[in-house]
Amino acid sequence: MNNIKLENCEHALELLNVDMIASQFEEVDAKTSTFTQVDFTDSTLTKVRFDSSTFDGVTCNKARLHRISLEQAQLSESNLQGLQVRNCNYEGMTIEGIPVLDLLGVYQRQLAGN
Description:
little secondary structure
């Protein structure tokens, strides 16, 4: 495999059928870029901004999401089977239009009543 190093440059890249296994990207501005049929399996994304981005047909099976800001994000037509949510800020969060804090309150009251 050949190594290519681009440093301190400005280029619009069009990469088709490229094997970039074990590549590293640091301090990259990829605003308005498009990624289609890209495999990020076992990759690490740290301090990455996806503000106002669109994810469609994305698979995150067994993904570990830690310290993720989903403020004002919308999730629809998605498979949440087995999803675990812990130690998060639920303020303003709704499921099917029902405030999650209200749902948790009802659940906690039911537990206290048993």
